[in-house]
Amino acid sequence: MGLDGPTGNEGVRRRGCSCTKDDFLPEESFKSWGNYVQALQQTPERFMDRVFTRSLDSTELHEIKARSQHEMKKTLSWWDLIWFGIGAVIGAGIFVLTGLQAREVSGPAVVISYVVSGISAMLSVFCYTEFAVEIPVAGAAVARSWTSYFATLCNHKPEDFRIIVHSMSEDYGHLDPIAVVVVCVICVLAVLSTKGSSRFNYIASIIHVIVILFIIIAGFSKADAKNYSDFMPFGIRGVFKSSAVLFFAYVGFDAVSTMAEETKNPARDIPIGLVGSMVITTAAYCLLAVALCLMQPFREIDVDAPFSVAFEAVGMSWAKYIVAAGALKGMTTVLLVSAVGQARYLTHIARTHMMPPWLAQVNPKTGTPINATIVMLSATAIIAFFTELDILANLLSISTLFIFMLVALALLVRRYYVSGETTTANRNKLVACIVLILASSIATAAYWGLSDNDDWIAYVITVPTWFLATLALHVAVPRARNPKLWGVPLVPWLPSASIAINIFLLGSIDGASFARFGIWTVMLLLYYFFFGLHASYDTAKEAAENKMGDGLKKVEEGVKVSSEAQ
């Protein structure tokens, strides 16, 4: 058959299958092998075209969204988004990672680590919010953690529910079938209805909040101030190392911004939902961390189920079942909201044809992207089945910090550069300021990560460089665009601070995680240069030609009407 499409006989067979090649690779570059070879030869030119082309807001809001064939239903309010935010974030991070970080990395000062991570997350929230409001279009680690607390609830150890394959690596040989089952159940909930998912999340999150309040109150009632006598046993370096890993505990709020397309009033509801949920989450994390470290000496905190074991240690064995049940509910809602959010990420990417357009289809009955949801959660289930939690947490933290840094960077470009309007001189100033902000932030993080001492000499150079570069951007480069509905305050300071903090936290993550991140990045870049680049290029050019054709048609109709009138 080649790449040209189905023959007559294959068209008949399609009655048993709703998918053809055109659902996945409909673009001109993939119509034949000759077209594909020619497209590969034009890769450098096409890449530069994609780099310097900016889509208009109207294109994002109407043309690209229309590629899903059906609209997502607008059913969510700010109240839904606050609970989605709480449900998306409070899960495996606080209930699992706190134990490891408090015991081995930062000690009772883990509460400061949560504050640092929370500040970084809040700055990213602001940047995400502006994009979500202006352009309202739309975890394996959590699934893995689900088994740990399920085991506690059943008076077993997590390994009792896992299949140990000794011939495989220690990091990937503890197979977790429960994680797969949980992901499959979440998939069914996510594809049925966004509003239904919201109701489920709302009820589960209320129960979860009650459990959190119980942990805080009961924990403080059993507090022993002596456990705080050695507050920072691993020094400030341990605090920041924990901050980098515990950023995983804040991952998920970005899923709320992907629901803007289904929100009734994005300009009002998205900022309230995102900021409100983050404030509540950060306060809850800090109180939970303090309660845990006051109940037990930090060196005795359990790594797998810290809160359950802590209550057992202070004579409240019965409380561990409440904690375990609450943790399971929390992790379930995190899985649900992340499933909803990740599917909408994939949907929007597929609308640009960087991923197969089949993934962009929205089901007319449920108003949800069923294909994207199933594919995303299938990948989640496979990864959760094989991979250990610490590897997933570090990999997720590094990729999320990197993405959040890019979002802050994109916000600066959005505010200070408009194609065809910004002068060459101002564009060059913008590039110079951004390069200095990035370079000074990377230098600060690299010096922190590579040096073993606390010498501050290098920071005297890097920190003022960041400050002066941000000040120059504020003073010397005129803004090219102002937000129409809601905007990040204190631009460029907040986005620049977000870039610096995210990069600094990246410098505290171990080298093995960077290696894994590098491997995944190379794999995605290979896909992009061999498929995604050419598919999105063809789609953009076809859309431009159609728009030009529609414009000419309107002009011709106008001339014809004018001639008839005369």
Automatic annotation (TrEMBL):
Keyword Ubl conjugation attached: no
Pfam families hit by this protein: AA_permease_2 (PF13520), AA_permease_C (PF13906)
Span of domain Cationic amino acid transporter C-terminal: 486-536
Subcellular location: Membrane
Transmembrane residue ranges: 81-100, 107-126, 175-193, 200-220, 240-260, 272-298, 318-346, 367-386, 392-418, 430-450, 456-473, 485-505, 517-537
Annotated GO CC locations: plasma membrane
Gene Ontology MF term list: L-glutamate transmembrane transporter activity; L-lysine transmembrane transporter activity
Keywords of this entry: Membrane, Transmembrane, Transmembrane helix
Membrane topology according to the record: Multi-pass membrane protein
Principal cellular location given in the protein's record: membrane
InterPro entries: AA/rel_permease1 (IPR002293), CAT_C (IPR029485)
Family statement: Belongs to the amino acid-polyamine-organocation (APC) superfamily. Cationic amino acid transporter (CAT) (TC 2.A.3.3) family.
Entry-linked PANTHER family: CATIONIC AMINO ACID TRANSPORTER 1, INNER MEMBRANE TRANSPORTER YGJI-RELATED
Protein name: Cationic amino acid transporter C-terminal domain-containing protein
